[in-house]
Amino acid sequence: MRLNVENMHCQHCVRAITAALQALDPNASVQVDLSKGEVRAEGNFSAEAAIRALAEENYPARLLDD
Asked: How far is Cα 55 from Cα 66, in angstroms, rounded to an integer?
């Protein structure tokens, strides 16, 4: 899935976002593109669960069409 994520600015953000999604699935693949404000994630979780997990870390997100 591809998500547009707000409030991402630095490597701390990358680590926090990766940790939030890998808390849902420890084997999840997470790629963060700070310049585009996008996250690509593949794992055993729904888009809704990913968006909720990111919102809890203060990173509002929305699903983008691929």
From this structure: 21
d(CA 6, CA 55) in angstroms, rounded, equals: 10
Give the pair of three-digit tokens for residue 63: 């699903």
CB 41 within 8 A of CB 28: yes
**Rounded average pLDDT per 10-residue block, the chain, 66 residues:** 96 98 98 97 97 98 88
CATH of 2-64, one of 3.40.50.300, 3.40.930.10, 3.30.70.100, 3.40.50.920: 3.30.70.100
Dist. CA 13–CA 31, nearest whole Å: 12
The model scores a pTM over 0.90: yes
